Amino acid sequence: MDPKKHEDLEFAYGSGHNNPLQAVDPGLVYDAYEADYTDFLCMQGYNTTSLRLIIGDNSSFCNTSKSGRAWNLYCPSFSVAVEDGHQIKAVFTGTVTNVGPPNSTYTLSTYMPASIIVTVEPSVLSFSTIGENKSFTVQVYGPMIAQQPIISGAIMWKYRDYMVRSPLVVYTNLPAMEDDHRIKVVFNRTFANVGSPNSTDTLSMHMPTSIAVTIKPPFSSFSVLGEKKSFTVKDYGPNITQQPIISGTILWSVLRRFTHLSLVLYTLPSPCLRF
């Protein structure tokens, strides 16, 4: 929980420690339903086929095939991804539900470095019944940033002993080149012979046909124990977006001995705080 020890700040340790006593009576909550997460996944690049695998509902579908930022998912956090060298500019819509006292008025407080302007409208949320919903808009503006470390702040709604805190994080996102999402990886590995002094390990591997894997050399010959040999693995494949994990194996074998190497490819998720 120490920001001095975690460079990723909220992305590393979340929004803070859980308080079980306050959790049973939080005052306000952010309601998120299945449809909200469906929209989020679709905006992150999942298609209808992959969406149904995740949700387990064959009636689910994506309304759009165009990827984008799903900022309005009703989770109690806000993250602003700014393309490197661009100005900070973002608008969010938040909706909270009153699960505390029926007649309550929450007032706003925020903290953020002075260089970033955060405005929230309205600045007061008044509730008359339990289960009542209120929406608000968060606007974040700031200067151009380049290779900026993560900037942390928060939005807080306060009423008596209740404090509903939403982290607000700004970070830079390096622009992607057109072929950045194409699978293209090169590994160099070295292993040592601890088996027979005179042996030749031959190669076999398993990988989905859409991924091209080449390994050079395709065999390794050893003459003494402890001798080392190196090999190069090259992986090539198509552009992938929010692709489920792709697994494969590389096997070096001699007689009945096998050296098994796992080969796993995966996509990095778009940054989104979840607390």
UniProtKB/TrEMBL annotation:
<dbReference type="InterPro" id="IPR045051">
    <property type="entry name" value="SBT"/>
</dbReference>
<dbReference type="GO" id="GO:0005576">
    <property type="term" value="C:extracellular region"/>
</dbReference>
<feature type="domain" description="Subtilisin-like protease fibronectin type-III">
    <location>
        <begin position="177"/>
        <end position="253"/>
    </location>
</feature>
<keyword id="KW-0732">Signal</keyword>
<dbReference type="GO" id="GO:0006508">
    <property type="term" value="P:proteolysis"/>
</dbReference>
<protein>
    <recommendedName>
        <fullName>Subtilisin-like protease fibronectin type-III domain-containing protein</fullName>
    </recommendedName>
</protein>
<dbReference type="InterPro" id="IPR036852">
    <property type="entry name" value="Peptidase_S8/S53_dom_sf"/>
</dbReference>
<feature type="domain" description="Subtilisin-like protease fibronectin type-III">
    <location>
        <begin position="73"/>
        <end position="170"/>
    </location>
</feature>
<dbReference type="InterPro" id="IPR041469">
    <property type="entry name" value="Subtilisin-like_FN3"/>
</dbReference>
<comment type="similarity">
    <text>Belongs to the peptidase S8 family.</text>
</comment>
<dbReference type="GO" id="GO:0004252">
    <property type="term" value="F:serine-type endopeptidase activity"/>
</dbReference>
<dbReference type="Pfam" id="PF17766">
    <property type="entry name" value="fn3_6"/>
</dbReference>
